Amino acid sequence: MRTALKLLTAAVLAAPLLAGCVIYSNEAGETVRVNMGDAKAPAAEAIRSARFADGALVVRVDSNGCTQASDFELAVVDGSPADITLKRTREDLCKALVADGVELRWTYADLGLEPGTPTRILNPLK
User: Fold this and answer.
1) Peptide bond into 118 cis (omega under 30)
2) Which residues contact 62 (CB under 8 A, 6 or more apart)?
């Protein structure tokens, strides 16, 4: 029991250290390139909801009282459907309690899309 607990603890502590690792056996002499991305890039914001209404994308996000649409960077990748990802670029450091979060809006023009374009929001839901 004690050994199992020690192994479990070691595995939990080591998991974050191994998250960016690639283990590869190069027996065939192949060259492998791994692009891990920019570690400083903001992660996709977990959102509460998203919908299109009145010609705009309406997204509900968490807020401490000062969150604005300009606090987010939107990545739109053309396709069918177009993929949209929201990333918070400025932290909301206010101290208000906004239990329901806030709704932010971006028009199709803001997104660089034609009205009615099929879209998919890639952000995780809370």
Assistant:
1) no
2) 46, 48, 92, 98, 101, 126
What length is written for the chain? 126
Instruction: Give helix then strand counts, H and E, for the chain.
Output: 2, 6
CB 58 within 8 A of CB 50: yes
Within 8 A by CB and 6+ apart from 71, the residues are 88, 89, 90, 92
Is the CB of residue 105 less than 8 Å from the CB of residue 58?
yes
- Three-state SS across 39-93? CCCCCECCECEEEEECCEEEEEECCCCCCCHHHEEEEEECCCCEEEEEEECCCCC
Is 72 in a helix, a strand, or coil?
strand
CB distance 59 to 86 below 8 Å: yes
3-class SS at 102? strand
- pLDDT, one tens digit per residue, over 65-81 is 999 999 999 999 999 99
pTM here is 0.66
**Amino acid identity, position 99:** A
